[in-house]
Specification:
The chain is an all-beta fold and 132 residues long. 0% of the residues lie in helices and 50% in strands. Strands 1, 2, 3, 4, 5, 6, 7 and 8 form an 8-stranded antiparallel beta sheet that branches.
């Protein structure tokens, strides 16, 4: 069954993002560290020069090269390992509800999720740059 697409979230509207149904797709083979890993994304609109939406990952593991982003975890649990980046050593972060994290464009990451992880993300639109 296909999830009904949501319109962009407009001023004055509220949305309980942990209840929004999302359609998962398998992670591309070159990103999958575990065969059954899947993700889903739903854009909710823009605010100024920032796009925002919902992203979810099933239990599993995957590799990624990040875009500029700030996110807040709303459900699930996992870790993200960030490879050495711009002189900072490799490190990991625990992701649980309430975690706020910033990713920089070009970071190489490994996501390992033990409970399906849902986050709301904020990222610059294509027309804007980063404020690292």
């Amino acid at each position: 069954m296909s999830a009904k697409p949501l319109p962009h979230l407009r001023g004055g509207e509220a949305l309980r993002i942990n209840l929004v149904p999302l359609e998962h797709e398998p992670v591309p083979a070159d990103q999958a560290a575990a065969a059954s890993t899947s993700t889903a994304v739903l854009g909710l609109g823009t605010l100024g020069d920032t796009e925002f939406g919902i992203w979810e990952m099933s239990a599993g593991s995957m590799y990624d090269v990040e875009a500029e982003e700030i996110f807040i975890v709303t459900a699930g649990q996992g870790t993200v390992v960030i490879d050495e980046f711009e002189g900072r050593p490799a490190h990991s972060a625990l992701l649980v509800p309430g975690t706020v994290m910033r990713l920089s464009a070009g970071m190489h990451t490994t996501w390992t999720v033990t409970e399906p992880l849902r986050k709301i993300y904020f990222t610059p639109t294509e027309n804007t740059g980063s404020n690292s």
